[in-house]
Amino acid sequence: MIEADLLTMAYPPLIVFAAALLVLVLPRILGFAIGALSLAAVVAIAAFAPDGAHLTGTFLGFSDIRPFYIDEFTRMMGIALGFLGTFAVIYAYSSEATKTMAAFALAYVASALGAAFAGDWLVLVFMWEIMALTSTVLVWHYGGDAVRAGYRYALAHGIGGSLVLFAVIAHYAQVGTFVFGEGVDYPNALLAGGFAEGLPMLLAILGIGVNVAFVGFHTWLPDTYPRPHFAASVFLAAFTTKTSAYVLLRAVPEGNIYLAYMGGLMAVYGVVFALLQHDMRALLSYHIQAQLGYMVAGIGIGTTIGAAGAMGHLFNNVLYKSLLFMAVGVVIYRTRENDLYKLGGLWREMPLTAIAFFIGALSITAVPGFSGFISKGMVLDAADPGYYGGSEYQALYWLLFIGAIGTFLSFIKLGFYVFFHGESDRQVRDAKPGQITAMLSVGGACVVLGLPAVGWPVFTDLLPLIDGTEFLGPGGEGQTLTPYSTGHLMDAAILIAISAVGFKLIRKPLSKIDYSDPALIVNPVSYHVGRGTMRATTGTYAAVDNAVVGFVKRCYWVGNNPVLAVDAAARRLPMVEAEERRPADGGRPSTIHLRTSIGTTVLLLTIVLTVVLWLLIS
């Protein structure tokens, strides 16, 4: 009991944030070691803290706040983020990341863990905003093109975070509590949580949709992730989007068919534009959106296998997506080249990096024997009317299947042109020892958790809503997971065959295409709209200011020269004669000064409006 209480009192985000501060002041190797150990401690806390354990306190004047809560969902998030974070720190150390960058990365990880472990909406939205801030600083730290991309990233996440904040406020106003699962009655919900229906739910979906890269809200993702230090991309690939997918499940516990189909569109949209990329990290960034599509689809379906599959795919994506960014990062580090078409034949020069890449590629493409095969198969089964899906999800199943083909084509393309196409004209060294350790450790998990008969039951035992290999079907009946059934293996074989033939057919024309995502028009349009809005606002302010000041000056002059004012008005009338008079002020113009800054004006208006509002209320 004492040990369990101690684990409950050990607040993971605080441990990691303390490590971030120590990184700045300790010798580099010691600081990075403490950073990695802090994240390994998070894995231990998540694995062994008892279900239902939580910390309570008062925050911002609200009581019964739960900054740390353990259930099967937060446990899985803690293990996934802590495990990957441990090896991401090791990778960053070996990739010559600075102490400052490591401190920013650890602070970012701490905030993501804070959002993942939160037991109420108030703490979650607070950590959500810190996560947006720390990830932006991590992007900015690299300088160059990352700075402007970081501003766009900050704007996107600022808008999304504001929507989530408004959702939390509206939720509290409606139900009177921030605690997950209290005040809202969802009879078919698979987990505690859920926003109140109506405006809170709508705002939450839109705000979270920015972070999980809904189609149309996603432009920050391929715009930002290819630009910072390649080790920073490893952290970015794992934390924001995956934490947000978990929060989406917590926010919409009963699912939603429109949400499910948004996931299908994300899967197809992401792979189409991944196929058209030359930049390796841009290709991987679009595949973050595509893989998030499977998670969003599973959440939207709302059944046990759909939600469990979404969480399983989240767990696997943390591993294999970061592994792919690690492998591509090593290629960029050694060759100083981002364009995959300018590489080739590197498997002879970098065999260990090639092995790590292909482990990640086989996992993300859901080849049998790798972890992605289990989780992606669960989401496909949740949508397939031939397994557990309703007839209304037939089209969704085909969207997800098309997305799976596109994923195969993308990683055949990336692996072929980087490692096999032609002979390498470069003599480069393979990954450094720390990079190899990180890649093969994460890759080993991808292999072990997908092994037939041995590994995959261990993986499904980690999943929420699954009891070993048993789960409740859509009708409430007991079902058993059988990922390596003949039908599933046949589906995988068909997928591989279609993809292999398809790549043969499209390889040459595809190599001549380098299209940007048409949705990236959002960036220049947003710039010009913002610039135009700013000019219109300041121009309107100037016009009103000139009119008001001119009016007051005229009134001031009239007050000093009432007779002249009457004469001037009279002269404007027909048939009236007025004699010339000398101004009382000697002809000097009014010298009244009513100028002030916009900020002071806003302050004065705020004070006036506050007084008016107070008078009206009282």
From TrEMBL:
Domain called NADH:quinone oxidoreductase/Mrp antiporter transmembrane: residue spans: 118-383
Its EC number(s): 1.6.5.3
rRNA processing is among the record's keywords: no
Single GO term (MF): oxidoreductase activity
Chief location: membrane
Keywords, ordered alphabetically: Cell membrane, Membrane, Oxidoreductase, Transmembrane, Transmembrane helix
Top-level taxonomic group: Archaea
Record GO cellular component, one term: plasma membrane
Record keyword Lipid metabolism present: no
InterPro entries, A to Z: ComplexI-like_HydComp, ND/Mrp_TM
Subcellular location: Cell membrane
Regions that span the bilayer: 6-25, 32-53, 73-93, 100-119, 125-143, 155-181, 201-221, 230-249, 255-276, 288-308, 314-333, 354-375, 395-420, 440-459, 488-506, 598-617
Record's bilayer topology term: Multi-pass membrane protein
Protein known as: Monovalent cation/H+ antiporter subunit D
Species in which this protein is naturally found: Natronorubrum tibetense GA33
